[in-house]
Amino acid sequence: MKAAAKLSLVESVERQLTDIDRVMVELDHFKKQTERLDLMNRLHARVAGVLNLSGMIEAYSVWLMPLVEHELIGYSNGLRKKRHLFCSGHGPNRRRAIAFAEQLIETKDDCEGIYEDDHGHYAHKWLIERADDAGILLILKNGKKLSEEQIDLINESLTILTDSLQRALDYEDLFERASNDALTGLANRRGFEERIHGMVNSAKRYKNPLTMLSMDLDKFKDINDNLGHLAGDEVLKAVAEKLQNAVRSSDLLVRMGGDEFILVLDNTDKFSGRILAERLCKAVDKLDIWADVKTKLGISIGLAQLEEDESLMEWLDRTDDILYHAKAEGRSRVAVR
Predict the structure, then answer these.
(1) Each residue's pLDDT tens digit, 33-48
(2) Which of 3, 39, 158, 262 is most buried, most CB within 10 Å of its CB?
(3) CB contact burial 104-137 (16+ within 10 A = b; e otherwise)
(4) Residues 194 and 174 both lie in one domain
(5) Beta bridge partners of 87
(6) 253 and 172 share a domain?
(7) Is the pTM of this model over 0.85?
């Protein structure tokens, strides 16, 4: 009898321990669920106030970085012709990461998967599909692949990100109608105001160089006076196309009014900016547009890199002053200070 009672007591204790273990497992499960829900709520809060695509991708990257270290996050939507790459790297590594991401986007491979380049970058690719739309999300990591746990986290976050990206794309469609120049298709002054503050803040936060080109056509008034305003409009469209073909999607190219243009080069110092500016001068010259036998269209460019403690207005004024020097020094040239 005593042996049976002792055995019953042992079984009771074992059952209690089993019940405790089960409760602890369930508590751990609920704790993880709560932590994951908190993470998703934080993501939702971070993207809730963001309107445009570039801000959305950057906000997602900032949320994800403490959880999943990465070099680049990119999104491309071929149907809407929208693309944004957000890279936290610098120098050659940044250029290689961006080139790898653009290569994967341009191949138009509609398969999700993991890709590797020759420099140790691993790219994880997701297809984000809706009934009437589709896009590609890329996350690049240097040195190793994402873990299964990290991939699960990203998969869960895509529910929130997909709806947020759709909202950003819809906003940009409406925004472009109001913020694009009707003649050239470039951003207008309103588009400049909408984007430039975010570019400046991002450059200062991550200590990336930001360079502005202030551009003004030479002898454009003679084109209008001699050939007429319709010919002048065609010249503006031809120049805009040349400029657009030379810049990246992350840059900001604006027709400020008349024959004045501004180009803001993302993550570009004044030395690299000057190389591009010289190419732009040559490209406009090669259009071979003449107002008369002695008067040829050209472009003058003033170039300035944003300084650490400089305000946007100070930067604009300084760049405009440099453009004035380019005009005064003979036109159809680049001036840098």
Answers:
(1) 778 889 999 999 999 9
(2) 262
(3) bbeeeeeeeeebebeeebbbbbbebeeeeeebbb
(4) no
(5) 72
(6) no
(7) no
